[in-house]
Write a sequence for this structure.
């Protein structure tokens, strides 16, 4: 598990995850899986595409989750 990827759903974070939060998590995932912090020029396109696909899948996941119990005030 990449320790810099944080949980992006309430109640782990107080508000809804932003697009920037989702993209940052996707970038960290792709870096971890690929083993590259910054890919070489010949791998940049596939690296960037993977980040976008994972970010989209993450946004879809978060939008579809039903958090039961919610926050307690």
């Amino acid at each position: 598990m990449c320790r810099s990827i944080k949980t992006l759903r309430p109640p782990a974070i107080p508000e809804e995850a932003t697009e920037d939060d989702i993209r940052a998590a996707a970038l960290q995932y792709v870096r971890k899986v690929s083993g590259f912090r910054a890919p070489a020029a010949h791998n940049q396109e596939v690296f960037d595409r993977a980040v976008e696909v994972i970010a989209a899948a993450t946004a879809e996941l978060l939008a579809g989750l039903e958090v039961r119990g919610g926050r307690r005030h």
